[in-house]
Amino acid sequence: MKKSLIALAALAATSAFAQSSVQVVGTFDPSFANVQTTYGNNTSVTNQLIRNNTQGTSQITFKGTEDLGGGLKASFLLENDFDAGKDARNGAAGPAGASNSNLGSLGGEQYLNLEGGFGKIALGAPNTPTLFAQAQNPFGTKIGGGFGQINSGKVRNNNTVMYSTPTMSGFTGHLAMSTKTKDATNVTTTADITDIGLFYNNGPLAVMYTSYKVAATATVAEKTDNNLTAAYDLGVAKIGVAYFTQKQTALADAKGTAVFATVPLSAQLSLLANFGQNDSALATNLDSKISAVGLKYNFSKMTSVYARYAEQTYDNVAATAATTKKVQTTAIGMMTNF
Length: 338
What we know:
Layout lengths: L1 H16 L1 E10 L1 E10 L4 E9 L6 E11 L2 E10 L28 E7 L2 E7 L3 H6 L25 E5 L6 E8 L2 E2 L5 E3 L2 E10 L2 E10 L8 E11 L4 E11 L5 E11 L4 E11 L8 E11 L4 E12 L9 E14 L1
Antiparallel strand pairs: 1-4, 1-20, 2-3, 2-20, 4-5, 5-6, 6-7, 7-8, 8-9, 9-12, 10-11, 12-13, 13-14, 14-15, 15-16, 16-17, 17-18, 18-19, 19-20
């Protein structure tokens, strides 16, 4: 009897010390899209397709947490992205003549995280601080947001250690470092990358600054991307601005700007708008612009339908069918989270 009581007490102590949970969450986001592409020689091609990731990212994600006691918590995240417009072969070839095999690769954010009063340390391939700043646009990293066109377009890197400070008076700092790799001949194949972020989020105001630096290698010059995003919630609308600069050693700089807004039209319906431009600063003056407008209707916290129109233009491109002059995309879709 005494041994049984001791065993039960030990089990109860262990259960109180380490409490763990695992979640499976995800997103499906297919849409019907009409895409018209105009080339430098003024020829135009139109395609209709079931498009993936128009508003969100189609993925299945496994999340786990464990309370280690003493204010410490361990967690992991494993994300598997997929194409919601194709079948589930995930890279396997389809039948002869078929065009519906999913040739996209598996992948997504993944990391192991240790969290406590000191902040958070993540190991693996977590999303970069720069991605957080870029995603403040109401179109995020998807159609209409100008991702990679009016900002640096960074998502995540392998071989990353990221430290995030505790939030103090609305301020949070982030430092992500991705180590370089070398081949068998000791030549660097991927460079060292450092991404520093300072975020302020308190009440209606959010301001995010990041500096993403890629070190020089034998074949690639050093490059630094700076992103600054500010958004303010007025109640009747949330408005924001973004500014991006890119500096490269011995190469021309670039800069991008964007103005965006989210306007609630009702408890469920919102209007989205974004306008941005990129100045390439090259002698060829290859500037680009993007303008987008959209509607989003929330059926619930999990499911929404949407419509959006985006137009991207590129200045002074070569007058050939190999260069893109304008892309106009109209999409209607449905996204559900689980």
